[in-house]
Amino acid sequence: MLLTVTTTHRPATDLGFLLVKHPDRVHQFDMPTGTAYVMFPEATEERCTAALMLDVDPQKLRARADAFELSQYVNDRPYAASSLLASALSKVFRSAQRGTSKDRPELTGRAIPLEIRVPVLRGTTDLVTRLFAPLGWTVTATPIALEPEIGGDSRYVDLTLAGTLRLADALNHLYVLLPVLDDGKHYWVAPDEIEKLLRSGAGWLAGHPEKVLIARRYLAHRKSLATTALELLDADQPVTEEEAELPVARKAPLAAQRRDAVLAALAEAGATRVLDLGCGPGALLTALLKESRFTEIVGADVSSRALDQAARRLRLDRMPQRQRDRIKLIQTALTYHDDRLSGYDAAVLMEVIEHVDLPRLPALEASVFGRARPGAVVVTTPNVEYNVHYEGLTGMRHSDHRFEWTRAEFATWAGDVATRYGYTVTIRGVGDEDETTGAPTQLALFTKAEVTA
């Protein structure tokens, strides 16, 4: 699938600085569902075009449980713009989407002439216009005809958007609205998707005439999530159940929110073979087993007692053989190299690192990021700044915690680890976020760094 961004701003080659991509090179990125490429088919002072192409690997696609047998291979995912393309856009143009540029900071806040083309996009001319026109775009959505022998138009359009906008705004419009039009996200939608929607919709979504439709579709028709998002968008005028057709969400315990956030991060990484490092009595293992996308699950812990508890919790002795083949438990110390941990799509360290003595933490980093080297690593840990909200708490949250970090300390550690071991990292909060202290839990998603050709 393809998306192009063109500008006639002078000099037009400033587009390369804004996107943080050199026009003379082809940039390659490993994605959970294939490979993304960024290239510049034209780059002159008068006109510059950046093209994002996503080459989808059908074997990495997740087939729906109710789909027909070959649906993983016979579908429109490699061709029609969807959440797959939105995820690729967010990864390869992350700085531009956030409105930052080291080389052209003065340009990030300026509206420049832009033309964006998405050659194949699911949707009708009417719906595409209703979504993009209120944002200042001139919309040209040409229906794509079916084969002559069939006649008529398909359910896809060839979309061109033209307007004078900040590049960051344009990318955020696309990030939200491409999956809205496709109406079929490729990953499991968890509560942290609300934060993504609000962040990318800042400054335009609250006043959009189709905000209810956008929230509902972006959040995969999960009623509680959509209602929460809409209430947050317009706190002074709460959305009624009749308007949104969605009930009010009930808060889940922090432990459940944390598990949901980890599952969402694993889905975002496209992982199917997963390590739960420091699995303890198996709370996350139980959640992983419920998700059919995870074909191989390994629970690892230094404590044999914890592994026995996990086995009882999972009822391994009574588990059907087909399920039993998906999971195994191994005893190992995370501060030592263990070749059994190599070759997996992702590893999870959920509430683990704070139990490790700080002088031993580099050994864990070397073992997990250096030796095992999974495609992605998900780390969660308490945010010590949030502890002021726990009445009566003195010291740390657990007697076995060796340390608890502030958000700045966690970000510094995660950035250093990512740099040393060849990963990129994004950090997000989990749980109810306070304006001053942040969320109670902080999560880092490490993914192997891009390969640039």
Describe it for me?
InterPro entries: 3'-RNA_MeTfrase_Hen1_bac, Hen1, Hen1_N, Hen1_N_sf, Methyltransf_12, SAM-dependent_MTases_sf. Residues 1-233 form the Hen1 N-terminal domain. Belongs to the methyltransferase superfamily. HEN1 family. The structure is a single chain. The protein is globular and about 65 Å long. The protein is of the alpha+beta class and 453 residues long. The protein has three domains: 2-187, Hen1, N-terminal domain (c-terminal autoproteolytic domain of nucleoporin nup98); 188-250; 254-452, Vaccinia Virus protein VP39 (Rossmann fold). The protein starts with a strand and ends with a strand. The longest helix is centred in the middle third of the chain and has 16 residues, at 167-182. Residues 63-70 and 236-250 have low confidence and may be disordered. It has helices at 14-19, 83-92, 94-98, 125-132, 167-182, 192-200, 211-218, 223-233, 241-244, 254-269, 283-290, 304-314, 321-324, 361-372, 407-421, and strands at 2-7, 27-31, 34-43, 48-56, 112-122, 138-145, 153-165, 273-277, 296-301, 327-331, 346-350, 376-382, 423-430, 441-448, 451-452. A hairpin with a 4-residue loop joins strand 3 and strand 4 (48-56). An eight-stranded antiparallel β-sheet has the order 6-7-5-1-4-3-2-15.
